[in-house]
């Protein structure tokens, strides 16, 4: 049996109605039950129990404010505490109309307010709009997250390629970049936990950890005879070696792109100042204390620790325990006491993490696992500017659609919803939003069930190479049957299963 695009999700969305008055619940259920599956709760306690068990499948809560045992405000407080409110919109239903009460409900995340007595048309319209708003927001966030992930994955790859070029010239194992990234992240996560006033966030920690890969980028300019010298460097050679921090910073500063990018700014700090020391005895600028950016201070300790525990052309590797003792004992210079506290408290985690990466390094599977772990640990969030740009594009699309004199439509399978342009809806005598269109009597009054089935089967035959479908059928427009051509483009889900997310299209006069 062939899959039908309009049958991709024929299950009705679930609406939870919470009201201690059975008649009120029945009235709302009568209004909505044709389009939605209704779940009822007679008080707040029962509503919370339902949400606890089924919150992941509920599309909307219609919540009375004045109830015994647990009122609506208390339900909202629980929904906030459990973060259910982030994904489930709430429409407040009540005769309570005091400004303070309503304001408190909105502050707790209520999306809309419907006052009794109910108007059936208004209730249906506001329910549809609320669910559509949340669905669009989820889709938008998902789209942005995918785009940001792909962008940052590419950034990770390029930075790691560049930093590994430096390691190759430096005769190092190839693990140094990964180690410094992981050590930096672990130390800063502990720092953020111990010192919440530091301003560190998941995003900033991810940025610093990624930027740490470029801490030695300036070594590209250092002769290999110095980089790979097995013995002790002369004073003149060491002076040349020390230039790598300022050279790397200059390289990043002179980039013709990304000068205002947070990643480049942090990479500059890390490259230039990761050899500074808390007492002012480092280089190149002899900064001391908090003059040294926190990013460079964390990378400094990570770099020293990994240098001590790694074998180099000029030294054997120290044990984890010996390296920690040397750093805490001041044998490698002085560091921020807070950073040292974090190093000490995460010592066991560092040892386990670095043993894991070292054990996996030689196998292709290990390299893949390490890469996935790095990408997974970069908890990146979509910036507001990107979200705003996408919202602007959607607004432009909707505006152009609203002034178009064409019948345009969009169908999404999750949830199953048909959206028709304003002009098209008026022309066809249909609402602009039709949930579960395959079973909509209104839609079937315009297009026959047989034609709808044939159209969905035609869409199902679309491929990645030929995603456009053309289909002729009779539509009832203005009470008269008219031969029309439906042209639509299949939209694919971003996964490996070839799923169809829906279609967009137009209706043309075929005569």
What report would you give on this structure?
- This protein has 511 residues and is α/β, with parallel strands linked by helices.
- Helices cover 51% and strands 14% of the residues.
- The chain has 20 helices and eleven strands.
- The strands form two sheets. Strands 8-7-6-11-10-9 form a six-stranded antiparallel β-sheet.
- Strand 9 and strand 10 form a beta hairpin.
- It is elongated and about 95 Å long.
- Mean pLDDT is 80; it is low at 1-10 and 358-387.
What topology does this entry show?
Layout: E1 14-18, H1 22-32, E2 37-41, H2 44-54, E3 58-64, H3 72-81, E4 90-94, H4 99-107, E5 112-115, H5 120-169, H6 176-194, H7 202-211, H8 224-227, H9 235-242, H10 244-253, H11 262-273, H12 294-309, H13 320-328, H14 337-345, H15 347-360, H16 364-377, H17 384-403, E6 407-413, E7 416-420, H18 422-428, E8 433-435, H19 441-444, H20 449-460, E9 468-477, E10 480-492, E11 500-509
Parallel strand pairs: 1-2, 1-3, 3-4, 4-5
Antiparallel strand pairs: 6-7, 6-11, 7-8, 9-10, 10-11
Radius of gyration: 31 Å
Strand order of the largest sheet: 8-7-6-11-10-9
Oligomer: single chain
CA distance, first residue to last residue: 33 Å
Count every beta strand, where a strand is a DSSP E run of 2 or more residues. Answer: 11
Counted by DSSP, the helix tally is 20
Q: Taking all residues together, what is the mean pLDDT?
A: 80
Helix content: 40-55%
